[in-house]
């Protein structure tokens, strides 16, 4: 499947989940963009690195960063974008196949698939957490710089008044 078709389908999936999540209409395109970019990062990384867990981590990290940016710019909750975007990375088929193999008593395959689903789910969680940490560090540094600039500006004003 080519990247253009994958991008379109991931956009539709993210928008559809945004609708289910009761996202405001004007935010649905943003939800779709988050899902699309996250899926493309996942897909390209998986092609280059041939590691689904690393690709999922990078996709989730990208989704979380974009969600933070859209949340701040659009003054909406971050979870609105992240949940809609992350749905394209959830290993639902892998977990389903693991359970199907348990029912069919193919336990070795079930364990392999369940382990893969668990690793992918963990990669999603780690990607979200890592992006959250990066954004908090950025916010603190940004606030420090802005506060210092305001303090410097006030000092300059006071010095000007004294002259």
Mean pLDDT across the residues is 90
Please, what is the oligomeric state? single chain
Instruction: Name the structural class.
Output: mainly alpha
Characterize the largest beta sheet: strand count, sense, and whether it forms a barrel.
none
Total number of distinct structural domains: 1
**Terminal residue distance:** 71 Å
Keywords: Cell inner membrane, Cell membrane, Membrane, Transmembrane, Transmembrane helix
Pfam families: ThrE_2
Protein name: Threonine/Serine exporter ThrE domain-containing protein
Membrane topology: Multi-pass membrane protein
Summarize the structure.
Helices cover 86% and strands 0% of the residues. The chain is built from six helices and no strands. It is a multi-pass membrane protein.
Give a quick set of tags describing it.
163 residues, mainly alpha, 6 helices, transmembrane
How would you describe what is shown here?
With 163 residues, this protein is an all-alpha fold. The protein has one domain. Helix content is 86%, strand content 0%. The protein has 6 helices and no strands. Helix 3 packs antiparallel against helix 4 and helix 5 runs antiparallel to helix 6. The mean pLDDT is 90.
């Amino acid at each position: 499947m080519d990247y253009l078709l994958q991008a379109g389908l991931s956009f539709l999936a993210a928008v559809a989940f945004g609708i289910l999540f009761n996202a405001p209409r004007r935010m649905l395109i943003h939800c779709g963009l988050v899902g699309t970019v996250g899926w493309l990062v996942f897909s390209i990384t998986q092609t280059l690195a041939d590691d689904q867990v690393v690709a999922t981590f990078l996709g989730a990290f990208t989704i979380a960063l974009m969600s933070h940016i859209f949340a701040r710019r659009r003054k909406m909750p971050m979870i609105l974008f992240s949940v809609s975007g992350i749905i394209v990375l959830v290993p639902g088929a892998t977990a389903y196949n693991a359970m199907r193999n348990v029912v069919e008593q193919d336990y070795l395959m079930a364990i392999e698939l369940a382990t893969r689903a668990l690793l992918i789910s963990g990669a999603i969680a780690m990607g979200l957490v890592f992006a959250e940490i990066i954004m908090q560090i950025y916010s603190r540094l940004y606030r420090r710089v802005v506060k210092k600039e305001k303090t410097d500006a006030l000092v300059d004003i006071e010095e000007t008044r004294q002259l």
